[in-house]
Amino acid sequence: MHDHEAMPAMLADFLRRHRDDVELIEVTDYEPMAGGYSRSMAKARVRYTSNGVTLEETVVLRGDPPAGHSMIETERDHEWAVLEALTDLGVIPIPAARYYDDSGAHLGTKAIVMDHVAGGSLQSLIEEMEEFGDHPTRLARLWGQIHTITPDQLPDTMPRPASWDARIDELIATWRSYEGASVNSDPTWRYIAAWLEANKPPPLPLRLTHGDPQAPNVMVDHDDNYLVVDWEFAAIGDPREDLGWYNIYSTAAGPNLYEADPDAFLAAYREVTGFGEAEVNQLTVGYFTVLSSIKILGTISAQLDKFALGENSGVMTAMQIGSISFGHDNFINAISGMQAAFDAMAAGAAEGASS
Amino acid sequence: MIVRPTTAQLLRDVRHELSEVVVPEVHTATAKVALEQIDIILEQCAVRAESEIAWMIEEIDEIEAYAADVAEATGDRATADALEAGRAGRSGSLQLDDLAGEYNLMSEALSCAIEACMSDPAQRALRERGVEILRLRRAERETVVRANWRLVGRG
């Protein structure tokens, strides 16, 4: 994927392996795409000729970046397994995943070939809007749809936490383990871990989580349908992990459709999932806004460590110092806000008990 | 040694040259995004070049005083040990790499001190003092360093 001159021929050869029903396959255009932070992305125009009939389509390729230039390390095998399972289930709208080069032998790196969505991302759509219309509740319902998928519907290869507590404890421990392994000592991360441990919310059933839910990962086709992409961080976890990550990401790169009207957003979400208000409310979303961020910030931190040690490089990776520090600022403020709310509730309860 | 123009001034001049001369000649989306990211990083480097040594020294001093108070109030062994390591590591050197090492050692003392306060409800005031160091020193200065940071090229 990284040799743009060679890719048209390589891709055509790869597609021929999967399409013996077609006489001639030509790749007439191949263009790297901006916007993929974690993976290398490209789109290609493909022409198929058979029995004198010619058809054309655009496909998207999603592969690993060159060695030593990753902002984030994730597994393509895992992503492909999730995409195959979701395609079979048919519950979540996704662009069809077509083929997978699982060794990199054909496309130069492990890469997934999928349908191109004619349209744009939800991000580019709402960036231009002053009023968001029904997009906040549609997005809440979309996240809710993902969270209706139970672990037994997912590939056996996906790790299954032993319990809700085990999942939460694992994420809290992840804050500490990344900090402990880093070239930077980070008291903010250690404080976050200690606070999260002391203030766990009520549990919810474990479900499929997207792992990186954000408006750039929702495509909107010309019929106004939402399609969810970038499943590399999919896991079995607490559904609120996704609500939390959506909230912090969209605060960093708005607009934030949750923040526009949190109560309406959460009501739409609860309607789809059947979860209760005691478990899904602004305070629990606040908790998961902090907790779940480690899944992506941790791997970013690890890549920055490699950068500091001379094992990684790249402007995209260097940019992520800003992501880490943005998290510091927001998490300290979020924890202060939640602590004040808990203190007020405790004071109210004490007053009620004494009167 | 010629110290003026300062490093920050030189970096900002490079930014200007890139945006005025190079960017208009670039037409591919991926290269434009890369240049925008480079501009952000250059500004962050300029901010750091101006202040990071002074900021680290100030914070090291403040953490040392705070961790000493926590160690005395709680008797926490981890805090006392980390503080001792932080003090032993102070060399007086202003070389960036030396100072970054000292800053890391003292940061561990801050982590231990806040953790000790978190596990002892009687130390809430001391805990809040530690959190204020995180907020007023780290987070606010990091906000300054982020400068014109944004997630360029997403979506």
What are the main properties of this structure?
heterodimer, A: 355 residues, alpha+beta, 5-stranded antiparallel sheet, 3-stranded antiparallel sheet, 13 helices, 10 strands, 47% helix, 16% strand, B: 155 residues, mainly alpha, 0% strand
Structure description:
The complex is a heterodimer of chains A (355) and B (155). Chain A is of the alpha+beta class. Helix content of chain A is 47%, strand content 16%. Chain A has helices at 7-18, 76-89, 122-127, 135-146, 164-181, 187-198, 240-252, 257-260, 262-273, 282-291, 294-308, 315-319, 321-354, and strands at 24-32, 40-50, 53-63, 97-101, 111-115, 119-121, 207-209, 218-221, 226-228, 235-237. In chain A, helix 7 packs across helix 10 (282-291). The relative contact order of chain A is 0.12. Chain B is mainly alpha-helical and 155 residues long. Helix content of chain B is 77%, strand content 0%. Chain B contains five helices and no strands. Chain B has helices at 7-22, 29-74, 77-88, 96-118, 124-146. The model of chain B has no long low-confidence stretch (mean pLDDT 96). The A-B interface holds A 32-35, 37, 121-124, 127, 179, 183-188, 190-191, 194-195, 198, 215-216, 252-253, 315-316, 318-319, 321-323, 325-326, 328-329, 332-333, 336 and B 29-30, 32-34, 37-38, 40-41, 44, 104-105, 107-108, 110-111, 114-115, 118-119, 130-131, 133-135, 138-140, 142-143, 145-146, 149-155.
Q: How do the strands and helices of this protein lay out in sequence?
A:
The complex is a heterodimer of chains A (355) and B (155).
Chain A: H1 7-18, E1 24-32, E2 40-50, E3 53-63, H2 76-89, E4 97-101, E5 111-115, E6 119-121, H3 122-127, H4 135-146, H5 164-181, H6 187-198, E7 207-209, E8 218-221, E9 226-228, E10 235-237, H7 240-252, H8 257-260, H9 262-273, H10 282-291, H11 294-308, H12 315-319, H13 321-354
Antiparallel strand pairs in A: 1-2, 2-3, 3-5, 4-5, 6-8, 7-10, 8-9
Helix pairs in contact in A: 4-9, 5-6, 5-11, 6-13, 7-10, 10-13, 11-13
Chain B: H1 7-22, H2 29-74, H3 77-88, H4 96-118, H5 124-146
